[in-house]
Design brief:
Elements (H helix, E strand, L loop, with lengths): L8 E4 L2 H11 L3 E6 L6 E6 L2 E7 L1 H6 L3 E5 L3 H11 L12 E2 L5 E6 L5 E6 L1
Length: about 120
């Protein structure tokens, strides 16, 4: 059995909150686009990653996920986010920090508390 990609679903009351985090801040691009439908959704992609963003208040109310993105240059990613979207820096991990498990990490979160931890091993 072989898997090639994990694509999480992230639910938003207003999908524009997800687009602000993933497209505007993290520079993902919209692949599949069904944003103008009665049930807006889209797949955003960057490099080998993909995330399915779905507008659904009931599911958004149930769960605010935390996901991790790995990078080979955390200082570059941090500098870009801090310069362009400092409002997304998570107050509990707003600087690149060496964690006890050996990874350097910082975190961002959107207005709905979806958290993305950026890490470099």
């Amino acid at each position: 059995m072989k898997f090639t990609k994990l694509i999480p679903n992230i639910f938003y009351e207003n999908i524009n909150d997800g687009l602000a985090l993933f497209v505007d801040c993290l520079e993902f691009e919209i692949g599949f686009d069904d944003l103008k439908s009665a049930h807006p959704c889209c797949v955003v992609r960057k490099d080998m990653l993909a995330v399915f963003l779905i507008q659904d208040k009931a599911f958004a109310d149930k769960d605010r996920p935390e996901i991790r993105l790995h990078t080979d240059n955390i200082d570059e990613v941090f500098a870009k986010v801090a310069a362009t979207h400092p409002q997304f820096l998570h107050p509990n991990l707003k600087a690149v920090t060496l964690r006890p498990w050996g990874a350097k990490e910082f975190a961002i979160k959107d207005a709905t508390n979806v958290c993305v931890v950026i890490q470099q091993w």
